[in-house]
Specification:
The protein has about 260 residues and is mostly helical. It has three domains: about 70 residues, no CATH class; about 80 residues, Arc Repressor Mutant, subunit A; about 80 residues, Arc Repressor Mutant, subunit A. The chain contains twelve helices and eight strands. The strands form three sheets. The protein has a three-stranded antiparallel beta sheet with strand order 3-5-4. Strands 6-8-7 form a three-stranded antiparallel beta sheet. A hairpin with a 5-residue loop joins strand 4 and strand 5. Helix 5 crosses helix 6 and helix 5 runs parallel beside helix 9. The radius of gyration is 19 Å and the shape is globular. The N and C termini lie far apart (about 40 Å).
């Protein structure tokens, strides 16, 4: 499943997290969200489609069908209720890129070919993505939608020529939000030992600036990990090498901030 047929905006994610309540039917959150946010999107059907992508990536749920409901405590919600959307947007993007193959392929197409200020045509990107996923309507729709998403995240800006985009400056994580970006990536492969350089590369490939990343690793030691540096390698040994314990630690940390 491509899963990105409609755009999402950082502000919408933040809005939904302000509307969130624990242990409630997801249908209730959907109803409130359709009334309170995403109003710049045309009709309710379009808002529902964008909302479904947002909920899939940024709201944890349990159950299925009519029994589907929010959980008791949600890490993404906890951070959104403590921090401004401008601070959280880089971590939101890391989550989207980490958990969606088309987003990952698209961002890496840009980061590995272009520097800040470079321009490219959308046809170049579409040709690349079609070469990987096939020339299907769902693929071309997803590319068009994700181009809008990248504009909303300030990754790209359109230039005068139709279908041409300029690459913006990379997004900068703050020290407070770094653990959330770590969680977004690490949850895909929760191993106890993390190679610094490999992990930093994943962040950089997600359109994150490398400014201060090494300092952030040190700042969150020993609360989240222990650092081991050798001549040939740099590692972090995660203090809580399972997702549930890490989530609990992050929730406690953000509640005390």
């Amino acid at each position: 499943m491509i899963g990105l047929d409609f755009p999402i905006k950082p502000q919408w994610i933040h809005d939904i997290h302000q509307l969130w309540a624990p242990n409630e039917p997801i249908s209730n959150l959907i109803s409130r969200s359709l009334v309170s946010t995403m109003q710049e999107l045309g009709g309710e059907k379009t808002r529902r489609n964008s909302l479904s992508i947002l909920l899939r990536h940024y709201v944890a749920t349990e159950g299925s069908g009519n029994a589907r409901h929010t959980i008791d405590k949600d890490v993404w919600v906890a951070y959104s209720q403590k921090h401004a959307v401008t601070s959280l947007a880089p971590a939101y993007l890391v989550q989207l890129v980490a958990h969606n193959a088309l987003a990952s392929d698209t961002i890496r197409f840009i980061t590995r070919r272009y520097k800040t200020g470079d321009t490219f045509k959308s046809e170049e990107l579409k040709h690349h993505i079609i070469g990987k996923y096939g020339e299907r309507k769902v693929v071309t729709n997803a590319v068009s939608a994700f181009l809008r998403t990248m504009q909303y995240f300030s990754v790209l800006e359109p230039v005068k020529a139709a279908g041409e985009y300029r690459v913006c400056e990379r997004l900068t994580l703050s020290a407070e939000i770094f653990p959330l970006a770590f969680y977004a990536l690490w949850s895909l492969n929760p191993v106890p030992q993390i190679d610094f350089d490999t992990f930093n590369r994943l962040l950089i490939d997600s359109f994150i600036s490398d400014d201060n990343l090494d300092d952030y690793w040190k700042r969150h030691q020993p609360a989240l990990w222990t650092i081991s540096e050798r001549v040939d390698a740099r590692f972090a040994i995660v203090k809580y090498p399972d997702i549930e314990n890490l989530e609990s630690t992050l929730l406690n940390s953000v509640s005390q901030s």
